[in-house]
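Escalated from tier 1: zinc ion holo job.
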Amino acid sequence: MAAQFPSKTDKAEAKRAKNGHLQHEAAALDAPPHPSPSTLPGTTLDLTLLKRLSETPGVPGREEHVRALVVEALTPLVDEIHVDTLGNVIATKKGTGNRRVMLAAHMDEIGFLARYIETSGHVRLQPVGGFDPRDLMGQRVRIHTTSGPLRGVLAPGGKHYNILASEHARVPKLEEYFVDVGLPVERVRELVRLGDPITLERTCEEVGECVSGKAMDDRASVFVMIEALRRLGKHKATIVAVATVQEEVGTRGAATAAFEIKPDVAIALDVTPSMDIPGVGESDHVTRLGAGAAIKVFDSSHIGNYKLVDHLRRVAEAQGIPYQMELLPRGGTDAGAMQRARAGTPATTHSIPTRYIHTVNEMVHRADLDAVATLLARYLEDAHTGDYRL
Ligand SMILES: [Zn+2]
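Tier 2 regenerated the structure:
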């Protein structure tokens, strides 16, 4: 998105108004545009790739489209790349030493599968991943059929408030939602097969200093993992960067990938809530948007190896990278699965502060993307030095 520069006509009009009643507005027009793209933080980031990652569909178990994009982006950056049985993309960048560091950023997004077609032609849904039904009101979706994507409108059942005023305040239950594709039932049955994946429809756009779209959870981390490999200097550790599958239904891909890779250290890359918004007290913010990379101490799936957590913190301090410590009461990441693979692995999560998680408007800050990518790259260069034995 380009910044809105005043046009020639606007400038002429501003001049004419200099001594008149429009003086205030004229001053505003003469002021430099805000914000100017070149002064925004994280300006070197390839936001076109982030936009493509966000907008490409990939519900758990049906990550094929986003996987193709991830393979395309990772291939030039690594020595080896393959796709495992569950569909994880496993990309290896060899180091000179013996240590193996596994990174995991999940490429699946919350969505649905087509579960049942009503006689009216409305498509019932099987959710894959956790939704708050309040976030689904008034949304559009795409059903990914074998003959291509089919646009649909997501709506809850029951009477519209025009008919029954007392019902309109009630929040619909998740199972009450269906998709209306605007076609007669016969045509719907021809096009839609039970099990077809369904994703929410939303473009990814720059909003102020931030980027907002669907599936920032966890494509923003896939993006940052790629960016960190781009920024990587000399490193002794072998880095195994994994774009995992089926995280949203219980960190399933990370479990099998960690079993295969046998890492010495495992770091999940994921989003974490920034609750620094009106109506939430400071003690419940978890993280603040724009305040830097989040280093996870605790969530309900794992407690980070404290020596690894300290190592990440030391690197951030030494490099002057803005960071914040994160403790999340509820929620989990791939680190929980990797930490418990085989006989256990030192693990934690490196998080991107994110507002409005699991909505189509997930919002991340460019400065945080920049900080997470830099901290990860600098850590990987130093990863061979860490002693995480307890
Ligand atoms: Zn999620």
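The pocket of zinc ion is lined by residues 217, 248, 358 (CB under 6 Å).
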